[in-house]
Amino acid sequence: MGQCVTKCKNPSSSLGSKSGDKDPGSKSHHKKVGGGGCKEEPGPVCGKSTGDLLANGTKTTEAMAETPVIATLSADPRKDDLLANGEDFSLLHIEELFSRYKDELDDAILEEGMENFCNDLCVDPAEFRVLLLAWKFQAATMCKFTRKEFVEGCKALKADSLEGICSRFPCLLLEARAEDKFKDLYRFTFQFGLDSEEGQRSLHRDIAIALWRLVFTQDAPYILECWLDFLTENPSGVKGISRDTWNMFLNFTQVIGPDLSNYSEDEAWPSLFDTFVEWEVERRKKEEEGRCSQSPSTETEDNRGGGGHQTGVTTD
């Protein structure tokens, strides 16, 4: 996300975390908050009226009838909410958490609120976990969580607090390693990188490079750095990455070997892949030739060792 996973205008920069030395992996962020912090209210109390004590020390007839105390039950909406949805999270807590970060003029969390949200979660806005969060929230736009996205995302995580969200990160990281889940995350990342307000249909090359590095944080394929070097040097003059190229690159990493020997131009690969393979094969060939030229020949080494070779000059 550029300045963050939600802002790709400058993919190389990072907003960073104002929390500084707080450790995102510390135990304090993995405590499960049960029941949204609701406490049981004490029940109504019934009392008995006792007789008055007369001056001579005798009691009047005691009224043994119980006097019911009508308790005014102050209903706890959070508790009712928990009971209503049958979960260990509260919709009202989620709404309150959203309101803490929402923009004053828009019913959404925007750039400043997103930065504060990430800081309070003790995560770097440019890191993989924030992309996972956006994926779970099914965010349509970078640097923006609508109310619906935030609420539905927290419900999917079954979390209604910062601590609850933090405690879900390990599960999200594990989930993203599953092949089918990663494929869904990978395809989401392309859509997430587009500027929907401008009707973009392809990713700017620099944004695509940043998002490729981000989405492959956990299990980077061997060919990834070679591919990104190719795009950075940009010998083909590519300016944008289409959805088809983005999606097919995942297939490319899964079926093409590290030495690229099983790549075939006859298959239905995007033409950019043909250019990349040609460029990479030529680059490797030049590197190999360079290494060979730097290695001393056997004859040179023998001469250095004084191996008794004659110079060809004879004396009478």
From TrEMBL:
Residues 1-52, 285-316 are annotated as: Disordered. It is found in: Cell membrane; Cytoplasm, Perinuclear region; Nucleus. Residues 89-281 form the DCUN1 domain. Gene3D superfamilies: Cullin, PONY binding domain, EF-hand. It comes from the Eukaryota. GO terms for cellular component: nucleus; perinuclear region of cytoplasm; plasma membrane; ubiquitin ligase complex. GO terms for biological process: positive regulation of protein neddylation; protein neddylation. Its main location: membrane. One of its GO terms (molecular function) is cullin family protein binding. Keywords: Cell membrane, Cytoplasm, Lipoprotein, Membrane, Myristate, Nucleus. This is DCN1-like protein.
